[in-house]
């Protein structure tokens, strides 16, 4: 299904956002996040951004204190996923203005909403920043 | 009033987050406190209170792994809220809390249908679509297919996009929906969402999507969107192998993208497409190799280096020149700071292993592993890779086994080596299978055994066990058996675990037997005189034999006091190991000395606490004592030779181990024919009743197990129990004669069983000879260097060994099958100009279905009646489910029940339709095989 999950994790390994596109039980989630966060956080800047884990790949990228981890199928294009992560960060940046960990914590719903505009059922559906943000801006105006 | 207080006093999500952040140590208590608050708040009738509670719950579940499945019903309650904010919260928490197989999901059907109707505001529709794309169950997918179908042609592009993505979920959960909605999906093919959906759909079975190739091609050439291009390339990589003409057609545009594009992601995807499906087109491959070279050379980007290696290994075996060209960079990657890149490089190198380069590469890797290895993990990865590559298919790559055995020895000496198990297995396995390598194998084993430092490394004890076994089993190839014995008996062997010690003792036993027998052979053939030529050796020999007589004289007393002597053994035998010539070794004196040495070492072991060791040590001692009984030992060699008993004994001993061991085929048990009269499948249940009473007795008898140390005092008792149990057994036998095999026949039959590894067996023989023939016939390819010496015969028993790593047959699961069948029907059925009878019918019915989705053909009235009954049954069960879940909210559940009845009548229609379609579908699929070859839909496009 292309993208299997999107995780945002801080430097301490605490989850800041988790969106799964296949159902996992709570225990599976906990185990998975524990394992891959440990694997990815242990890596240095000079190492590549791809980690193989079980039967899929994790593509990750660090922005300031936040790690963006995306779990994808093995035949997915890693560089495209990196671009997707960058797009996600840029979109959040544009909305929150220099996005940081706290913005996502206090606006978890909105972050989910943004992600929903970009990815559905594991497929990237929208890559235009303006298109992604229009519904959210609309929502902000009405409420 | 209480509700109002709740609302006023309720803590917001921000409050919760702030308190969690301000007191990180009290996290768990804060969470549990707020959960109890939430449980109260969530029941509130005030939507604001409820939504805030759900909001907090979603936060806690997302970030603190809290189980919120209990809250699903409350999210459902909030779903119909007219406020968009509440609705959004409800959908979000529902998507987080719902299990896809939850029954509660069905309760959401009506609300979803309402929200998905084209008259709803578009943000609401997209919320519902998001929810559906994550959670749709087969039932939900079936019920909401018409809604998705109409939304696929919505005027709002964002809704269309979302409906497209949701369609994927609907299709996979309910394949029959393809017949309704697929056409509209094809209409949207230009959007990135639709291409994503096609990419996912084609992953499991690409064949049905071949007719869409012209559309994909148009995108490949025309689209400016890299996301779309990447997905289109993925689809083509799957389609091209099915249709060679398609590959020819797409080579040029792919090369064009490779040359032109600045986006690395697109270049990477083009390179992968070429490696996967266009590897026949040299120009494309050359272009890819060029790009990969750039990737590999990018010093500052580990990602590109990694991906470069990845693409190279995809090109790998077919285009070895590509790897050859980048050889230096690949080897350099073995030292990359990134473990993933190192591993990828290793994988790539291992894939490039051929008979011609296996020696060079393995030597390179093994020495690399032992030299500059900061981390043991990767060092073991290397060893494992070499071991598995060389051991693959019964060592098919290995031409020179002497070299390979030496390599195994070198690996064992690697200080980080943790692959003892595999090396052990291969050492023994090679010994069994390859006759010609045994002398070298014994030599390597000796080097390992003799090194006292290796005994300290627990990770290679298994290897030492193999070495001991090899040198015992093939003692005849040992250049110096006495030295070997000393190695096997050296004091540091007490560091070995029990299982390995047991192997050591058994090896001592075999070597001893061998030495003894060859000594006698030499005596008999009259070569003994050669030792007389050396007077100094002669006198030495005399002295030593005197010394040994004394020890022998002590006999059993030695057994008590010799514990301390073990330490001395290591120092003493230096004089023995000097001789190299086999003939000169077995002098009277040296054999005596050997016996002495072994006895000294074995005596303490015969009192060891572990039976495995005790048992073997005792049998060695027993042999020595038997030899001792020949008084002629004390005289000279001449007397020994004349004594008939001694030579008879020697022959007997020689016979003990002369049966050669061989590899055992996995099939060998199947070859044993069942003797006449033995019924294996008979039900033996009644046997338990018969033996029930005796079981207890016999168990207690068989488990009475005595330690050797206490043995002396209790012998009488033990034998008593033994005789008791045997008498019980014979009594039982007498009573239930018919359940036993006939006693007399037993032995005769056992001869019928072919030995598992009998080289005379027709199967194994022809297998081996076939292998040889294969080897001879194979013209060595240009890259295969001619081996300097002929490859020795490797015994293969049958094709089991070889078939081990052949891929299992791919099985398409039923759902995919249904899905692709439906897609085939939609795509091919409509475009077919001259359909056969059944096809015409199916096409017609499809068209009709599409025009009037709720119309049921009168022809299927009888089916409808049948399925109507079915529906009633289903309805009953579903309403009972609802009442079960709705017990807390009675009012709600009753209204739901009514709604459900309305829904039911509708369902009646859809369901019967569904039934009918399914039936049709089966027919269509039957017709499919004829249909496919007849409809070359993409021919025009290709030519």
Explained architecture:
- The complex is a heterodimer of chains A (143) and B (943).
- Chain A has 143 residues and is α+β, with helices and mostly antiparallel strands.
- Chain A has helices spanning 26-41, 78-96, 101-106, 108-118, 129-142; strands at 3-10, 15-20, 50-53, 56-63, 66-72, 119-120, 123-124.
- Chain A has a single domain (3-142), classed as 2-Layer Sandwich (Beta-Lactamase), CATH 3.30.450.60.
- Chain A is built from five helices and seven strands; from the N terminus they run ββαβββαααββα.
- In chain A, the strands form two sheets. In chain A, strands 2-1-5-4-3 form a five-stranded antiparallel β-sheet, sandwiched between helices. In chain A, strands 6-7 form a two-stranded antiparallel ribbon.
- The relative contact order of chain A is 0.17.
- Chain B is an all-alpha fold and 943 residues long.
- Among the domains of chain B are: 1-97; 352-478; 495-663, no CATH class; 836-942, no CATH class.
- In chain B, 70% of the residues lie in helices and 0% in strands.
- Chain B is elongated.
- The relative contact order of chain B is 0.05.
- At the A-B interface, β2, α1, β3, α2 and α4 of A face α2, α4, α6, α8 and α10 of B.
Summarize the structure.
Chain A has 143 residues and is an alpha+beta fold. Chain A has a single domain (3-142), classed as Beta-Lactamase (2-Layer Sandwich). Chain A has helices at residues 26-41, 78-96, 101-106, 108-118, 129-142; strands spanning 3-10, 15-20, 50-53, 56-63, 66-72, 119-120, 123-124.
């Amino acid at each position: 299904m292309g993208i299997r999950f999107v995780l945002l994790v801080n430097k301490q390994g605490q989850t800041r956002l988790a969106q799964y596109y296949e159902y996992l039980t709570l225990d599976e989630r906990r185990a998975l996040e524990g394992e891959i966060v440990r694997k990815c956080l242990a890596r240095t800047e000079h190492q590549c951004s791809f980690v193989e884990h079980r039967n899929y790949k994790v593509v990750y990228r660090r922005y300031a204190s936040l790690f963006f981890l995306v779990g994808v199928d093995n035949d997915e294009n890693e560089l495209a996923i990196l671009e997707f992560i960058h797009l996600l960060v840029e979109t959040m940046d544009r909305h929150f203005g220099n996005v940081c960990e706290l913005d996502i914590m206090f606006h978890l719903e909105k972050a989910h909403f943004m992600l929903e505009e970009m990815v559905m059922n594991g497929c990237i559906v929208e890559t235009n920043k303006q298109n992604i943000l229009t519904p959210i801006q609309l929502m902000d105006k009405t409420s | 009033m209480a509700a109002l207080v709740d609302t006023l006093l309720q803590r917001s999500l921000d409050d919760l987050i702030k308190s969690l952040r301000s007191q990180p140590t009290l996290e768990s208590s804060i969470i549990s406190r707020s959960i109890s608050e939430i449980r109260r708040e969530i029941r509130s009738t005030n939507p604001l209170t409820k939504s805030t509670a759900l909001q907090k719950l979603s936060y806690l579940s997302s970030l603190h792994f809290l189980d919120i499945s209990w809250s699903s019903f409350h999210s459902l309650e909030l779903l119909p809220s007219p406020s968009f904010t509440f609705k959004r919260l409800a959908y979000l928490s529902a998507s987080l809390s719902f299990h896809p197989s939850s029954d509660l999901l069905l309760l959401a059907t009506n609300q979803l249908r309402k929200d998905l109707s084209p008259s709803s505001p578009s943000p609401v529709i997209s919320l519902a679509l998001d929810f559906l794309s994550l959670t749709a169950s087969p039932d939900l997918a079936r019920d909401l297919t018409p809604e998705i179908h109409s939304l696929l042609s919505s005027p709002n592009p964002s809704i269309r996009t979302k409906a497209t993505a949701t369609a994927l979920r609907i299709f996979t959960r309910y394949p029959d929906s393809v017949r309704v909605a697929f056409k509209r999906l094809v209409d949207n093919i230009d959007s990135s969402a639709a291409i994503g959906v096609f990419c996912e759909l084609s992953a499991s079975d690409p064949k049905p999507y071949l007719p869409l190739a012209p559309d994909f091609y148009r995108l490949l050439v025309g689209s400016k969107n890299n996301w779309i291009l990447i997905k289109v390339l993925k689809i083509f990589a799957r389609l091209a192998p099915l249709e060679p003409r398609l590959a020819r057609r797409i080579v040029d545009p792919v090369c064009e993208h490779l040359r032109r594009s600045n986006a690395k992601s697109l270049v990477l995807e083009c390179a992968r497409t070429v490696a996967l499906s266009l590897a026949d087109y040299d120009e494309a491959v050359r272009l890819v190799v060029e790009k990969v070279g750039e990737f590999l050379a990018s010093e500052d980007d580990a990602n590109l280096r990694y991906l470069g290696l990845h693409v190279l290994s995809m090109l790998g075996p077919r285009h070895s020149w590509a790897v050859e060209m980048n050889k230096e960079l690949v080897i350099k990657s073995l030292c990359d700071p990134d473990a993933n890149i190192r591993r990828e490089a290793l994988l790539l190198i291992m894939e490039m292993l051929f008979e011609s380069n296996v020696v060079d590469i393995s030597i390179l890797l093994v020495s690399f592993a032992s030299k500059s290895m900061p981390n043991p993990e990767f060092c073991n990865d290397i060893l494992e890779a070499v071991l598995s590559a060389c051991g693959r298919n019964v060592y098919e790559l290995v031409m020179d086994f002497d070299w390979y055995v030496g390599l195994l020895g070198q690996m064992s000496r690697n200080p980080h080596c943790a692959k003892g198990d595999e090396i052990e297995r291969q050492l023994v396995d090679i010994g069994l299978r390859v006759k010609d390598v045994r002398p070298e194998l014994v030599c390597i084993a000796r080097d390992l055994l003799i090194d006292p430092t290796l005994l300290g490394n627990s990770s290679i004890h298994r290897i030492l066990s193999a070495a001991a076994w090899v040198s015992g089993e093939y003692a005849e190839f040992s250049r110096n058996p006495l030295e070997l014995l000393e190695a096997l008996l050296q004091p540091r062997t007490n560091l070995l675990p029990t299982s390995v010690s047991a192997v050591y003792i058994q090896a001592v036993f075999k070597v001893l037997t061998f030495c003894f027998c060859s000594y006698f052979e030499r005596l008999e053939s009259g070569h003994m005189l050669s030792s007389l030529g050396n007077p100094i050796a002669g006198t030495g020999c005399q002295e030593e034999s005197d010394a040994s007589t004394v020890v022998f004289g002590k006999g059993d007393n030695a057994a008590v006091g010799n514990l301390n002597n073990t330490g001395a053994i290591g120092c003493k035998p230096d004089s023995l190991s000097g001789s190299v010539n086999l003939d000169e070794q077995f002098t009277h004196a040296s054999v005596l000395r050997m016996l002495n040495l072994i006895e000294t070492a074995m005596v303490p072991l015969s009192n060891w606490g572990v039976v495995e060791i005790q048992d073997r040590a005792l049998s060695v001692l027993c042999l020595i004592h038997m030899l001792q009984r020949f008084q002629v030992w004390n005289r000279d060699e001449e007397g020994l030779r004349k004594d008939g008993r001694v030579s008879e004994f020697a022959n007997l001993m020689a016979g003990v181990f002369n049966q050669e061991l061989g590899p055992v085929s996995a099939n060998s048990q199947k070859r044993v024919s069942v003797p006449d009269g033995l019924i294996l499948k008979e039900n033996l249940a009644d046997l338990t009743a018969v033996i029930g009473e005796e079981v207890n007795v016999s168990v207690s008898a068989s488990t009475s197990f005595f330690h050797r140390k206490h043995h002396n005092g209790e012998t009488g008792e033990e034998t008593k129990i033994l005789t008791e149990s045997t008498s019980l057994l014979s009594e039982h036998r007498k009573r239930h004669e018919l359940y036993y095999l006939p006693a007399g026949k037993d032995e005769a039959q056992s001869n019928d069983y072919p030995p598992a590894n009998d080289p005379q067996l027709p199967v194994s023989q022809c297998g081996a000879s076939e292998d040889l023939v294969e080897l001879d016939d194979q013209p060595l390819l240009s890259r295969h260097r001619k081996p300097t010496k002929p490859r020795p015969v490797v015994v293969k028993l049958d094709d089991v060994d070889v078939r081990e790593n052949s891929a299992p047959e791919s099985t398409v699961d039923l759902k995919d099958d249904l899905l692709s069948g439906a897609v085939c029907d939609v795509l091919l059925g409509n475009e077919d100009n001259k359909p056969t009878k059944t096809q015409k019918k199916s096409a017609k019915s499809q068209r009709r279905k599409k025009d009037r989705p709720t119309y049921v053909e009168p022809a299927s009235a009888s089916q409808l009646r049948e399925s109507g009954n079915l529906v009633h049954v289903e309805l009953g069960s579903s309403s009972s489910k609802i009442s079960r879940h709705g017990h807390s909210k009675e009012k709600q559940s009753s209204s739901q029940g009514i709604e459900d009845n309305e829904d039911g009548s509708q369902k009646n229609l859809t369901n019967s339709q569904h039934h009918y379609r399914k039936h049709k579908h089966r027919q269509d699929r039957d017709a499919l095989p004829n249909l496919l070859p007849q409809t070359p839909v993409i021919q025009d496009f290709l030519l």
